[in-house]
Design brief:
The chain is an all-alpha fold. It has a domain at 203-273 and 284-356. It is built from 31 helices and 2 strands. The longest helix is centred in the first third of the chain and has 38 residues, at 21-58.
């Protein structure tokens, strides 16, 4: 009898990749269900067969009816005929006995052929059942089909070789024993229920568990710090505690492990980037110390990578509000874990800009700068600012600026203004300084052999050679970054920043990002190419005249325009009178309440417009601004009044002819027009600074001193001169610090 073998097709590698986990589970369930149903059918058929055989054996054959009992006459005649037909004398005793035995059994000889009733109907019925089951093909009891587990395939020169492994079969008897033991254990538990802990006992137990976990974390961290190369494997043990499953201490332990690993990586990470080894380097023989160092570097990089992946997963879980199957950490606790994870990422972004996976951290941090949570957004923005300030070379800054620019463009310029304000912390000004010093102090050129032979003797050439060798070694020992490389990085960074700014000016003029853009242009205006100056000034003037900007935004436009003109724009023949007129007209729109937000920008604009451009400013314009500033000082808060009066003092020193405003008896042509918006034609020379006499009676002591100082003509010596602590302080900071002191 042939036995069918189930030949399982080995799935291809592509099919394994395409088949999902859910499909594999469904296939396994269907297969198990078919096996169970086939086994049930087989058992049912065997049960029926056994029952039929038992019935056939147990029941006795039914004797046939004798038709001669109904017709006694015929029966007698037939007996006589038989006696005549069969002479018994001629038969042996054995044959006679056999015939008698056959006569006692029911057979076709004793059957009444006239009767239509089937005599052996019941017997035949049972025989048919037995025959039916006999005809069924018998299946040999083979070993149960073994289930296979598909493993990852192996790629060889010949191709892809699928790998499988037999699934271990559990013994049913052992399972039954285990189930019985579990039932007995459940019964015992039900009989003796565990006493519930009170709140105080639960807290004491939690505190005890937490202390044990803390000691374990501290022991692992101390061992790693003491000898990182030997105990690098303990990093994995410490990282595994990020999956703490005890619901009482899971959240706290995970936070502690995150912070501990962050500090460990900051301490044990080398000051260079670890690259993967080539095949040649792996095959070469090396010393034990070198091999130990390589193992340490490989383990460090792998554990650092897994750690960053864990932090990323925590942030994603919080973002998706996705509850894990284990239910160890609640949805509310996800936010706390995410905040600690983001804080660790920010620390690593600033502390390890040279190490592996720094670009991956940038890609994680930049989207979080625009997060809905204000705490996380501020945390990420501060980390990026700190990175910009400490990055001397510019490599890390370039990576961050690229990602921010792409993110802003991808979001269609609908992001937080704080993202663009981080550009203000870039150290781009250092490029120009380094470039100038490089032009002035050009690198020393060594003499060629021909020049030495012409000008120097043999002994001098020998000394010169030794001297040049020493200079080269000293230059290499300085380990200072190449100025050309730094210049290229800063130039590329600045180009990306300006592209972002110009896109917003062109496409999103009503965006809340405009103040940050204008502030950035004001800071980096001296680095803009001169070819763009005309177009940029036209755009700024159009923005001011449109009336869609707020007061601060218009001030930023003015500040940007004058920063452009004060740098490389000096060579251009551009008259910025319209910007002077706008600032003079809008000075009285300054907020006089508690905010005082625009005062600092106004003072910076006045410094750029009047003080730094003193040669291009007329006397009429300077007199008009001094008069309007003194009037403005009467309306604002004391801290703003101090800053305005200090700026007026600087203007009086810069333009000495403004002292005619202190003389009330001087006469001029025309009448002062305070409501006129044109500073050139308001006739400011025909008025006096009577506001200073009112400010001399101000309740704030510093305002009184400054007013009296200005009335006396702002002398540098004498009783009306200012103290050094006031005269040397920057005017933008004077208004902030004066109230704190007095």
């Amino acid at each position: 009898m042939k036995v069918r073998r189930n030949k399982k097709q080995i799935p291809s590698f592509r099919k394994l990749i395409k088949t999902s986990k859910v499909k594999l589970e469904n296939k396994l369930k269907n297969k198990q269900f078919k096996q169970q149903s086939t086994l049930k059918k087989y058992r049912k058929e065997q049960r029926k067969l056994r029952q039929a055989v038992k019935d056939a054996v147990s029941k006795k054959p039914i004797p046939l009816e004798d038709p001669r009992e109904k017709q006694p006459g015929k029966r007698i005649e037939r007996e006589e005929e038989e006696e005549e037909a069969l002479p018994l004398d001629m038969m042996d005793e054995d044959d006679l006995q056999l015939m008698k035995d056959l006569g006692q059994r029911p057979s076709f000889l004793t059957r009444d052929l006239s009767s239509s009733e089937p005599v052996h109907a019941k017997k035949r019925k049972h025989e048919r059942i037995i025959d039916k089951y006999e005809k069924i093909p018998r299946t040999l009891q083979t070993a149960p089909e073994k289930e296979l587990i598909h493993l990852l395939p192996i790629k060889d020169k010949s191709g892809i070789i699928p790998q499988t492994r037999e699934k271990p079969v559990t013994d049913s008897n052992k399972d039954e024993e285990d189930q019985e033991a579990a039932r007995e254990l459940e019964e015992e538990i039900i009989e003796d229920p565990i006493r519930e802990l009170t709140v105080e006992e639960h807290l004491i137990e939690r505190k005890k568990k937490l202390q044990e976990k803390k000691m374990h974390i501290a022991a692992l961290a101390s061992a790693i710090l003491s000898d990182p190369e030997s105990n690098i494997k303990k990093l994995k043990e410490l990282r595994s505690m990020l999956m703490e499953q005890d619901p009482d201490v899971a959240v706290t332990v995970r936070k502690l492990v995150i912070v501990s690993l962050m500090e460990l990586f900051k301490d044990i990470t080398p000051s260079y980037k670890i690259r993967p080894l080539t095949q040649v380097e792996k095959s070469t023989k090396i010393r034990k110390e070198t091999q130990k160092l390589r193992e340490f570097e490989e383990g460090l990089v792998s554990q650092y990578k897994f750690y960053l992946e864990n932090l990323e997963q925590m942030v994603k879980d919080w973002k998706q509000r996705k509850l894990k199957k284990s239910n160890v950490v609640s949805l509310k606790a996800y936010k706390g874990l995410a905040e600690v994870a983001v804080k660790s990422l920010c620390e690593l972004l600033v502390a390890l800009p040279h190490f592996n996976f720094h670009n991956n951290i940038i890609v994680l941090i930049v989207p979080l700068m625009n997060d809905v949570s204000k705490l996380i957004s501020e945390m990420c923005c501060e980390a990026v600012k700190k990175l910009f300030k400490q990055d001397k070379l510019g490599q890390a800054s370039l990576g961050v600026v690229k990602v921010i620019s792409g993110f802003v463009k991808g979001r269609n310029y609908e992001v937080r203004p704080e993202m663009l304000k981080t550009f203000l912390c870039l150290r781009i000004k250092e490029v120009e300084v380094k470039k100038d010093t490089e032009d002035i102090n050009k690198p020393k050129k060594f003499m060629t052999f021909k020049e030495k032979r012409k000008t120097l003797s043999r002994m001098q050439r020998k000394w010169k050679k030794a001297e040049e060798k020493l200079e080269r070694e000293l230059r290499e020992a300085e380990a200072s970054e190449s100025t050309e490389k730094k210049f290229k990085l800063h130039t590329e960074t600045l180009n990306i920043v300006f592209v972002t700014y110009f896109r917003i000016l062109k496409k999103a003029q009503r965006s809340p990002l405009l103040p940050a853009v204008l502030e950035g242009l004001a800071k980096f205006a001296h680095l803009i190419n001169v070819e763009f100056f005309d177009d940029l000034l036209v755009v700024l003037h159009t923005l001011i005249e449109s009336g869609d900007l707020s007061y601060q935004e218009s001030l930023h436009c003015v500040q940007t325009a004058f920063h452009i003109l004060s740098g490389q724009g000096d060579v251009l023949n551009i008259d910025p009178m319209k910007f002077y007129t706008h600032l003079y007209k809008t000075l009285f729109k300054l907020h006089a309440g508690a905010t005082n937000e625009g005062v600092e920008i106004v003072l910076q604009c006045l410094d750029v417009m009047l003080t730094k451009r003193r040669k291009q400013v007329s006397q009429q314009r300077a007199l008009a601004f001094v008069k309007r500033l003194c009037t403005l000082a009467l309306h604002v808060l004391p801290n703003s009044s101090i800053g305005i009066l200090a700026t007026t003092r600087i203007l009086m020193h810069t333009f000495p002819k403004t002292d005619l405003l202190l003389d009330s008896e001087s006469q001029g042509s025309g009448v002062f027009l305070p409501e006129l918006d044109e500073p050139e034609y308001c006739n400011a020379q025909n008025t006096a600074l009577w506001e200073l006499y009112a400010l001399r009676r101000h309740y704030h002591p510093i305002v009184q001193k400054l007013a009296a100082h200005l009335i006396a003509g702002a002398p540098s010596e004498g009783c009306e001169a200012l103290k050094p602590e006031l005269s040397r302080r920057k005017m933008s900071n004077t208004r902030e610090k004066s109230i704190r002191k007095f």
